[in-house]
Write a structure and sequence with these properties.
The protein is of the alpha/beta class and about 260 residues long. It has a single domain, classed as 3-Layer(aba) Sandwich (Rossmann fold), CATH 3.40.50. The protein contains 7 helices and 12 strands. The strands form 2 sheets. It has a 7-stranded mixed sheet with strand order 5-4-3-6-7-12-11, sandwiched between helices. Strands 1, 2, 8, 9 and 10 form a 5-stranded antiparallel sheet that branches. Helix 5 crosses helix 7. It is globular and about 45 Å long.
C-alpha cells in the first residue's frame, strides 16, 4: 500500500473533527509528535513513519518524481498539494502554481510555508473558473484521488477541458500488483468479486482523536493507468520508474477524433 496518503478527494467539505490529515500536517509542521494511521475496510491497519515525506525537498523525493520535473512547465495545477512540497519547488523555478486540497489545515500549512496560491478545493469541484493550466501534478500516488475507474474517466475529461492542447499530467501511483502479501492479494480478489478494480481501496486516515470519512483510493498498474487515461481523453506517453512499486506516468492528450 501507499506509504503516504495525500490530501483527500472524497467529499466536498470536511468538518474540523474529520480533518485528520490536516491535523497531522499541522502537528508535524509545529514540531509536535505525529503519526499517520491508515485503516482499510477489510480491517487492515497500517501505521506509517510519520508525515516527513510530505515535507521533503526535491533531493529526497522518489526518483520517478525527480525525473518527472523536466516535464513541468507553464502554469501548474498541484492536485492534493498538502503542505506544499511540490508547489514550493515549482515556485522556486519561477513557475506559477495553484495548489488545491480538501484539507483546510493542510492549506493553512501550505500557505504558512510560502505557497502563494493554495486553495481549499476538492478535486471533484475543479472547473473553468480556475483558468487554464499547462501541467497537472499528481504526485504521492495522487492518481488515486480519482477513486474509481468511472471517477478517473470523468475527472480526466474535466482536466482536459481546463488545460492547454500540449498539457501534461504527471501522475504518481503505486502498482498494487507488485506484492506477495497474502492480505493484499486477498483484498484484490475481494475487490474483483465485488466488480471493483483490484487496487480500489476503501480507506480512512486517523491521527490522534481525528479521523477522516471513508473514501475510495485507486491504485493502478501502468497498463491500467493508460487504459483509464484513454477513457478520459489522455494516454500515457512515458513511464518513469526505478524498479520499485511507485512510478510516475506522463500523460498527454489524445488527438480529438473528427465527428
Amino acid at each position: 500500500m501507499c506509504s503516504c496518503l495525500p490530501g483527500l478527494g472524497m467529499t466536498k467539505s470536511l468538518q474540523p473533527e474529520q480533518d485528520a490529515y490536516g491535523h497531522l500536517m499541522l502537528d508535524w509542521f509545529e514540531g509536535r509528535p505525529a503519526a499517520e494511521i491508515v485503516e482499510r475496510d477489510d480491517g487492515l491497519i497500517m501505521a506509517n513513519r510519520g508525515p516527513v515525506n510530505y515535507f521533503q525537498p526535491l533531493r529526497r523525493w522518489p526518483m520517478p518524481e525527480r525525473r518527472a520535473m523536466r516535464w513541468a512547465s507553464g502554469r501548474v495545477l498541484d492536485v492534493g498539494c498538502g503542505p506544499g512540497r511540490v508547489a514550493l519547488h515549482l515556485q522556486s523555478r519561477g513557475l506559477r502554481v495553484t495548489g488545491i486540497d480538501l484539507s483546510p489545515l493542510a492549506i493553512q500549512v501550505a500557505q504558512a510555508r510560502g505557497v502563494r496560491d493554495a486553495r481549499l478545493i476538492a478535486l471533484s469541484d475543479i472547473g473553468p473558473e480556475l483558468g487554464l493550466f499547462d501541467t497537472v501534478a499528481m504526485f504521492g500516488s495522487n492518481f488515486g484521488l480519482f477513486g474509481s475507474a468511472a471517477g478517473a474517466a470523468r475527472r480526466l475529461h474535466v482536466l482536459a477541458s481546463i488545460t492547454s492542447p500540449a498539457a501534461k499530467i504527471l501522475a504518481g501511483s503505486l502498482n498494487p500488483y507488485d506484492t506477495e502479501d497474502p492480505v493484499h492479494l486477498a483484498y484484490h480478489r475481494r475487490n474483483k468479486a465485488l466488480g471493483r478494480m483490484a487496487g480500489q481501496a476503501r480507506l480512512r486516515v486517523g491521527h490522534r482523536q481525528w479521523a477522516t470519512p471513508w473514501f475510495d483510493y485507486l491504485l493502478v498498474s501502468p497498463q491500467e493507468m493508460d487504459e483509464l487515461a484513454r477513457r478520459g481523453g489522455w494516454r500515457v506517453d512515458r513511464l518513469l520508474d526505478d524498479g520499485n512499486p511507485y512510478y510516475v506516468g506522463v500523460l498527454v492528450k489524445q488527438p480529438r477524433q473528427p465527428r
